[in-house]
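Tutorial handout. Part one gives the primary structure; part two gives the three-dimensional structure as tokens.
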Amino acid sequence: MNPEAPLSTRESSILNAIVQAYLETGEPVASLALARLRGMSLSAATIRSVMSDLADQGLLAQPHTSAGRIPTPQAIQRYVGSLAVRVVSAELAQMRWELGRSRTAGERVERSSEILTNLTHNVGIVAEFPTDSRVLSNVEFVALPANKLLMVVVAADGNVWNRVVDIEKPLTPSELTSIRNYLNLEFQGWRLADIRGEIERRLRQESATYDSVMRGLQELHIRGLMDLALQAEVHLGGTSNLLAIDLHLTREALRDLFRTLEKKRRLLSLLDRFLEDHSDAPGVHVGLADIHPAMANLSLVGVTVQQPGGGATRVAVLGPVRMDYSRALSAVAQMQHALQTLPE
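Part two.
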């Protein structure tokens, strides 16, 4: 049994017809129903024989003794690999316009996932990974009530990152100004990837413990000041669309699935595992049980977009195994083109 073995023209034709019918109805497909299809000039007996061979190769399964056959994930994977990817110029132009309005990396990532969700009615996932060449323009701090502080990092290319953190010991406006001036004077024009290590080196110096600026900087460093621009921006939209799908999950398993999708690290692991090798054309992965048992009836369509500045953006659509793959592939390909042609 080898589901990846080459198929004859007849076997491919029958398998594709079964997959198409299953994706449309979700029901097992019988040989008699296939024989009645337009363009299928084969008898039910011949089709039944071919279906038996496809089952022996691990491409078809029979859920019940008297039922027809359903395609396995391997069969759907084969079928999707034969689909042509369409780029709709009007949709692509609209994407470019909407993404061009984003002022920050976070806004662009959020808008990208929303666009994918709206186009496919599935779950849109977008993660933007920072480039090593991005350099610092300046940092800003805003003191907030209840020992909270807004930290802002601005890159020379205009990208902005911010985070509200709790601090153990309040810093006075004068102290915040001194820390801000120190960072902007010392590190403006430095690569963001290098600043964190240099701050740690300076904090290790013995004299740092006697310097109020460095003591305050240490507090902000612990709170992840220079990690802001080095972490991936991730956004997921449309998770409510999964509620409309029968994933054959218990209520607890469904809750577990949603908890999994809410974790940034799990999402990055999902994208890393399946999209690392897809930097030219969208890839499809049918059935994601290896990531989580509750994802067995889900598929991922996605691509890694290499940015001119050296960063990377991973774009994906997560949906049921019976999703509209043509639509998902088109949406992902269009997003790939839109992101690659955005002005820096």
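Part three, for discussion. The first helix runs from residue 9 to 25. The two ends are 50 Å apart (CA to CA).
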